[in-house]
Amino acid sequence: MCFRPYSIRSDRLPAEMSGMSFEDCFQWRSLTPRRIPPQNIVIRLANREVLGASTKINPYSMSRKFYQNIVPNFTVMTVEKPPCFLRKFSPDGKLLIAFSCDQNCVEIYEYRGAAAACDLLKDTDGDFLGIPVRGDERGSQYVQEVRRRIFRCFFRLQHTVQVVSGVEQLNRECSLFTSDGDFVIVGSAAPVVSLDEVQIPHFFDLYQNNESLTFNVRAPLENYTLHVVHLREGTVVDKCQFRIDKIALSHNQGLYLYKNTLAVLSLQHQLIHIFRLMRDGSLVPMQTIGRFCYDDDHLQVDQRFTHSPHQAFREATINSLKHRLLVFLYKKAVAASLVKRSTLPLRRFFQHFNTFLHLKIWKMQLLDEEHLLIKYASEEVVTTRCQDPNSHPSFFMVYNLKNTEVLAIYENTSQELLALYERFCDHFRNSTLSYESCFTCSPANNIFARQVQNRCKQTWTNAKLGGPTEATKRLLAQLPISAQSYSATPYLDRGLFSYDDKWVSVMERPKACGDHPIRFYSRDSGLLRFQIYAGIHGASLGPGNSRRLVAFTFHPTDPFAISVQRNNSEYIVNFHLRHLGKTTKEYSNLPDSYIKRAMEKVYYKTPKDHRFLRREDKKRHFYFGLDRPWTEGFQHANRYNKRTPLVEPIKDWSFFRGDRVEVLSGKDKGKQGIVVQLIEERNWVIVEGLNCRYRNVGKTPTYPGALVKEEMPLLVTSEVALVDPSDTQPTEIEWRYTEEGVRVRVSKRTGRIIPMPKMAGETHDYKTRTTYKENEKKDTKSREVMEVTFEPCLKTFEMDIMDKMGIKETHTPCKTYWY
Fold first, then answer.
1. Rounded to the nearest 5°, which phi and psi values hold at 419?
2. In 10-94, where do the E strands start and end?
3. What residues does the KOW domain cover (predicted)?
4. Which residue has better confidence, 150 or 542?
5. CA–CA separation, 485 vs 479, rounded Å?
6. Which of 551, 662, 663, 701 is the most exposed place for a label (fewest CB within 10 A)?
7. Looking at the domain assignment, is residue 692 inside a domain?
8. Per residue in 101-134, pLDDT tens?
9. What is the reported pLDDT for 640?
């Protein structure tokens, strides 16, 4: 049994223990160590099935605890990938999108599962596969082979979509997935000035209204286009253009997608365009907010200026959105003056009226389909002409799209807005639009994330030029939140793992790359679970690479992650995956005697006495399903006299744990996977990640329940076939003998030997004969087992004792007659 270290908190000590040393305190009162909860994967699976019904824990959080046992504990460094920029996984995790090297195409890859490279890495041990040792030619060849083949093991190219051409290029940091995962929205930009001839934009194109920003040479205007790409078909469905504008495409800062509502912020013209994404992928413009708030407002303006040409940039009036902001601030000042019975709030409003009048839209986000959160700041901040934009004053406005009302306005020093953000952080992030179980770790749903935020707030408060106001500004600088900028992977959940957010965080932004691996500790036990090696471990990159950034892309559900480090003009890609090494011991070792005792059901047995004959009445026919014989599920299934249906007898069983097979029928026909479980009584195999079904668990009148994914069995006689490792195609096999007399499996199609997987010789705790180490305190020594303590001979028990003690019988025994 493992225990956590002893710890004494001074605020919980009694008065008579104050000022005493640790030894005196320990002698005065014995401390009770904290017991580490069970780390067995079988217990976690059982807890995952019940989903915390008997506790007050969120069922999704209870189901996520299973990920503490299944972790990406292996790193393959410097993976050879196609010439492209890897971007992000789809919400369901089945696809990965990337941008071509010339940034004209979108490449769509199919993700093959976390165990796709199991055969390739079966002879690998340790935590990473890095730089080979000098002089080891065989090891160097193996490392190069793994680097060259591992990308094709995990990903298969499905479509290459030509989106743009010419000087127009896609922004490789811009991508928005729809909630159903069928479409992705990408953005492209093209310079206004071409390479062959100079095209100066017209004055009326630069300034379309009186709120347009002043032209800045540092941030030139471009022609932007949004493209809707169908992921399944690999086609461009629709596109929308914005000429001579400035839209922040990087990290989706100028775009926001909430379900089927798309908002686009035009910084140059201070407009917010609202689109509706239809089921076929087409973009339908709904309204444009800025100069007007209603669709028919421009009709009244056109009726007013019918005899003379109207120029919008010369309008002396305040545009509709700015007018609503000023009216709300004025009414707020009037209400405050009436409450305080003083004209000071109203005078302050008129004092800062010019500042309010020159505010510009900086950022925005959709809170839901009807509400916008708009951030206003000065023009110097919006045009990036100031050093520290977060330290300048700014305002947050909550705007209703349906009735065009301003619901609230907060300053960037508002404690009320900070409290709302900390309490409803999940609503600001909108991370559960695709799946309810794919939620991000936030201060609103996790106490450890709240502690980290409070620690940062305390640091900014106690800083030299800090304070409570500065801390509030720093925290509210995260608003508005960019769309789909937080990872929903359970491995960044602070309720499960403890890690240093200096090197990796839930927000998908590049982080500094350190020289040591990123360590992830289990939250409930404090044990080191896995490490992630970013960059090249053990390689010197020179003094010119002091500033190294690395970006992480985690799979939403599987133990798989991609890290991309930029080194000068070269991109270093590492794969972090689940690898069963020699030290993995998650299960308990279950001997056959225990399985027999747990499986058999005895109705009656005679007492152990010489007066009774040995008789017993027990269950002799069992029903075999997906539950193993030593589990409670097996006992529950055999509660009644239900027998296993008749199955086709198989003379030579040819499937083993760890085999790669291909599904021959069903919805996953043509897909390949790894056999993880055998049920020979039913001719079944369980293939990892294939032939899955979803069932609703934990449904109550007040709780809708949760969908649990479980793998269903496949018949070895007709539904699966072994894969020939020489060409990765399904094949029939037969048993043969080699010249050494070893019985092997041979492919009938190619004649190649199909090797026996390493998992076939493992026990329930992944122990093999070659890697097993004896427990000196518990195990029986091998020399004691092999020692010969009995030699059979034709002697009675008395004669054997006399020979051992050296007693010789001199009397002649009498003859004995038997009747």
1. -65, -40
2. 74-76, 84-89
3. 654-681
4. 150
5. 12
6. 701
7. yes
8. 889 999 999 998 888 888 788 777 777 887 665 5
9. 65
- CA distances, 232 to each of 108, 229, 237, 277, 502 (Å): 9, 9, 12, 17, 37
**pLDDT score at 22:** 46
* Closest of 761, 564, 617, 666 to residue 151, by C-alpha: 564
* Alpha-carbon gap, residue 273 to 245, rounded angstroms: 13
CA distance 261 to 517: 41
Kindly state the average pLDDT of the residues 47-54.
60
Q: Where are the beta strands (DSSP E) in 630-760?
A: 660-663, 672-679, 684-687, 692-697, 706-711, 714-715, 720-724, 729-731, 733-737, 743-747, 753-754
Backbone angles phi, psi at 806, to 5 degrees: 75, 25
CATH number, domain of 721, equals 2.30.30.30
Tokens 């997987």 identify what position? Answer: 757
Give the pLDDT score at 591: 56
Supply the pLDDT for residue 236: 93
Which tokens sit at 324? 């609503």
Q: Measured between alpha carbons, how far is 711 from 688 in angstroms, rounded to an integer? A: 7
Residue 67 has which token pair? 């990920």
Are 638 and 619 within 8 A, CB to CB? yes
Secondary structure E strands in 420-545: 497-498, 511-512, 518-522, 528-532
In sequence order, what E strands does 499-569 have? 511-512, 518-522, 528-532, 549-554, 560-567
The angle, 0 to 180 degrees and rounded to 10, between the axes of the packed helices 468-476 and 447-461 is 130
Q: Which residue's structure tokens are 């992830």?
A: 520
Which residues face 371 on adjacent strands? 400
Residue range(s) defining the domain that contains residue 50: 37-69
- Beta-carbon contacts of 306 under 8 Å, excluding residues fewer than 6 positions away, are none
Per residue in 553-593, pLDDT (tens digit) is: 999 888 999 999 876 667 889 999 988 643 332 333 455 56
Total length of the chain: 819
Averaged pLDDT for residues 307-311: 57
Q: What Rg do the C-alpha atoms of the chain give, in angstroms?
A: 35
Q: How many domains would you assign to the chain?
A: 2
Beta bridge partners of 528: 521
Please provide residue 206's backbone torsions phi and psi, each rounded to the nearest 5 degrees: -75, -40
- Listed residues 69, 91, 123: the one ending a domain: 69
Q: Where does a domain end: 69, 89, 122?
A: 69
747: in domain: yes
Q: Report the relative pairing of strands 684-687 and 672-679 from DSSP bridges.
A: antiparallel
pLDDT digits (tens, 9 = 90+) for 763-791: 665 566 666 677 777 677 777 878 887 77
**Dihedral of the CA atoms 795, 798, 803, 805 (nearest 10)?**
160
Please indicate, yes or no, if residue 483 is contained in any of the structural domains. Answer: no
